[in-house]
Amino acid sequence: MAVRVFDTRSRKKRELVTIEEGKVSLYACGITPYSPSHIGHARQAISFDIIVRWLRKSGFEVSYITNFTDVDDKIIAAANEEGVDFLEVANRNIADYFESMDSLNVIRADAYPRVTETIPEIIEMIETLIDKGHAYLADDGVYFEIDTSPEKYGQLTGQTLEMVRSGAGGRVDKTGSGKRDHRDFALWKMAKPDEPFWESPWGEGRPGWHIECSAMSLKHLGERFDIHGGGSDLIFPHHEAEIFQSECCLGHDPVVQYWIHNGMINIDGEKMSKSLGNFWTISDALQRVDPLVLRYTLINAPYRQPVDFNQIMIEDSENHHKRLIDCYGEGLSKHGTGDWSGIPELEGAAKRLVEGMNDDFNTRVALVEVQAVAKWIRGLLSSRGDEGGISGAVGWISEFAGDVLGLLPADEEVLARVKSHENVKVEVSSKVESLLGEREDARSAKDWSRADEIRDELSEMGVVVEDGPDGATWRIE
RNA sequence: GCACGAGUGGCAGAGCAGCUAUGCAAUGGACUGCAGAUCCAUGGACCCGGGUGCAAAUCCCGGCUCGUGCUCCA
Fold this sequence. Notes:
Elements: E1 4-7, E2 12-15, E3 23-31, H1 39-57, E4 61-68, H2 73-82, H3 86-103, H4 119-131, E5 135-138, E6 141-144, H5 161-168, H6 171-175, E7 185-190, E8 205-207, H7 211-221, E9 225-231, H8 235-250, E10 256-262, E11 265-267, E12 270-271, H9 282-288, H10 291-298, E13 307-308, H11 311-335, H12 344-358, H13 363-383, H14 387-404, H15 411-444, H16 448-460, E14 463-468, E15 471-476
Parallel strand pairs: 3-4, 3-9, 9-10, 11-13
Antiparallel strand pairs: 1-2, 5-6, 6-7, 7-8, 11-12, 14-15
Helix pairs in contact: 2-3, 4-7, 7-8, 10-11, 11-13, 11-14, 11-15, 12-13, 13-14, 15-16
The protein binds one RNA strand through strand 3, helix 1, helix 5, helix 6 and helix 8.
């Protein structure tokens, strides 16, 4: 069945037809590592991680590239403030990024190109743009001249040149640059004192913000590629600038077949931003929640919707994720993993999940099915029947909640968790059993206060007592 | 101002033309000395006004409200 993706340029869902059958080339704009990564970066990475996972599961061979913009104003500013080299700042934050993403179960991209390693290609591209008359040299840099291909304006945003001309109004003068028109954008910035620089035909300087992605995608994926992605905040101006650069440089269009953009994160209904003081770095978030719970929260809405990161969402996710892992762990340790084909409940769930994922990667629909199967397992587990069903369902969860959504820790870890729980159980077992016996006596004597006292005592040991029809059971909390 | 998106039950959040979304919470029941867990059941929603359809949260038009972008941003 075909995968349909929402394309920002055409503003509708389109069936994914790739340039080369069976292969997908995907470039997603990565981060500018000037500070530790925040949960918005996590959402972006997880969104594309799941897209890549799903495309691969659907049988595509995927080349997935995501970059680091490792030289820019903010990195330089941070480095100057600390009195260190800009690369030290970038490298530190890139390491932080990888550490966070690994914990969030984000599969590594096939390559992580960096601006500082792509300078020759960038220069070459700018030269071509100058040669073709799309760019000009000014005192302070090289600029792309929008008026050389006005028809490309607004392809992603629906705006026209005039709209932006009037909209941006008086901000032009503030730039104080050598731009001929305020909508032109920098391809190469001449170095100011105390700035890192590279040699170029136009003097010492560094690349402008947009050109690197055009150069890196060209270098790694070629003159045409299937999907270009990134956060929706990059649509304008960054991605529109890329369209200008790449298409004018290469002389054909479209270079990118599908544009995919993930939604932003809100905190309690407001945009997350440093100035509002509602900013969460990934490490902030991980102090509060398990990384996989964070992942669950971030895929709780389809990737294009904004996610509101609020208390309720987090608690909800914690709850669901814990249930998922608990029933998976119990099923796995008791019955192992098996084949789910031929089991109607599981085939039905798989079918709905596949349809949901094929329809623009709807993780929310997928989660509903995962929840339903988890519930189904719990039912079987408590009724002690149908072992084939349980192992099949464990296999189902492993395939979809694990491989596709990336929500499960490794099986060894799940089993180790179950085991350590059991070890604790064994350790305290005799004490608990004797207390429970005592409590049973108290209960038959209808000495409720003594019975509750014992329950409280056990509770302090972390033991939860649950009275059932066949007497009391207990478990470690 | 312009552009894009969103407005769904107490809450979160799907669906985007016809069939129970789902989860949490609530209520009733089973089980309980109480509690908890579990199971069963129940109620409750589609911003407003028009329009098109046999049929509209779902499509169209017009409002209103909110968010985001138009400057660096995942």
